[in-house]
Structure formats: structure tokens, C-alpha cells
Amino acid sequence: MPTLPDPDDLKDSNVVIYDGQCNFCRGQVNNLRRLDIGGKRLSFISLHDPRVKERYPDLSHDDLMAQMYVIDRDQNRYGGSDAVRFLSRQLPLLWPVMPILHIPGTAGLWRWGYHQIAKRRYKLAGKNCEDGVCKI
């Protein structure tokens, strides 16, 4: 996978926290990187990076394992499908799907759908472990 923009290099970006050991998640993050035309809106960090615990102590390991998070420029947190909905407003290439994601009354449905995929993410595409060892 190509190198992803790092939060330390893009101080004024929205930070995407994702499961770097999840092949499905890594693929989706790579898609987001490509959708970020100009490469300045988003930076990425794996939830397994020690900087996450230091910078975002309010997000527990269980929270981060349950769903992707986006931390916006104002330090607001968006998790799971709410993060996807937030990103649909930030990335112009996602604007065509934004109206569908924001139909009034559908937030609960999107959260349920996201949760169904998230809890099966390792079954969908496996796990990527450095040196064959995954941290728990």
C-alpha cells in the first residue's frame, strides 16, 4: 500500500484512525486517500500506533476496534458511519452520495450497517500482521 499522509506532516487535516491490521480497513483507507484530491484534507494513523493513545486518551482501545474514527480540525470525534457521513461532506468526490447518507431518519440504519461490516472485517479480508505477530 502506498504511504499514507501522516498527521504529523499534515497538521491542519482531518485525522482518520483505522485498524492498520485489518486488510479490509487498509483497503478502504487507501480508497479514501485516493478520493482526497490534492491530498491535504485527510491524514491517517493506525489505532495500533502509540501516538493514538497519547493524543486521544478519551478513545478506548475497544472504541477504536469497534469502528473507524475521524478527528476533525476542531477535535470533534466522528465514529463509524457518522465518520463516513462526515467524510462525504469533506471530500468532493463523495458529494454525489452525500444526499443518500443524510436522508433524515436513516442514521440508525447506517450505524447498524456499518457495525455489521465492522464486526466481520477480518472474515472479509483477513488480518495483516507484522512478522506474523498481531498485537492484542
Describe the structure using short key phrases.
single chain; 136 residues; alpha+beta; Glutaredoxin; four-stranded mixed sheet
Describe this structure in words.
- Pfam families: DCC1-like (PF04134).
- This is Thiol-disulfide oxidoreductase.
- The chain crosses the membrane at residues 93-114.
- The protein is α+β, with helices and mostly antiparallel strands and 136 residues long.
- The protein has one domain (14-130): Glutaredoxin (3-Layer(aba) Sandwich), CATH 3.40.30.
- The protein is 41% helix and 12% strand.
- It has seven helices and four strands, in the order E-H-E-H-H-E-E-H-H-H-H.
- The chain has a four-stranded mixed sheet.
- Helix 1 links the parallel strand 1 (14-18) and strand 2.
- The radius of gyration is 14 Å and the shape is globular.
- The mean pLDDT is 91.
